[in-house]
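Work Package 3 (structural annotation) set out to generate three-dimensional models for the target panel prioritized at the project kickoff. During this period the team completed the workflow that converts sequence records into discrete structure tokens, so that structures can be stored uniformly alongside our sequence database. As a representative example, we reproduce one entry of 197 residues exactly as it appears in the project archive.
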Amino acid sequence: MTETKTVTTTETDTSPTTPRLKTRYTDEIKPALVKEFSYANAMQIPGVVKVIVNMGVGEAARDAKLIDGAVRDLSAITGQKPVVTKARKSIAQFKLREGMPIGAHTTLRGDRMWEFLDRLVSVALPRIRDFRGLSSKQFDGRGNYTFGLTEQSMFHEIDQDKIDRVRGMDITVVTTAANDDEGRALLRHLGFPFKEN
């Protein structure tokens, strides 16, 4: 008599989950944009290409340790190691020499970009004090949008007690939109809270 053994394999699902905002973009936002602008081709539908987060640290010319704080904050916010920006030329009035570190920036693409946008729109922007919406006039003419934040503390990844100094940042959202109206519509559908004119 032969004994049959039942082997149970515990399969762990290692497939990465699609970011929530990316799924919403595919299922809801694309059809809404087609309805709004009546595109003939699916390739005309605007999408987000990349997000650039830039933190300028002008005081780093006098104190080199400040750049480490900016790099640490940007790493925590974006989940990616930032690139340190160096001065391209010397400016005597600012006591700046060529090659000195003056800032840090990081470029987000793919799933990390979608997750950052989701956190930005649903968590970070609502935490800004006296927030009345983003300006809808800061588009560059090609559907790309840049806006500034005055402090890093609105991101929940930053520990409030460990902030050595307040640092602002610029965030640029690069889209495939043909013009500003299409870019504005895309970002509004993604949840960007624009001020109503």
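Strands lie at 48-56, 83-86, 101-108, 145-149, 169-175.
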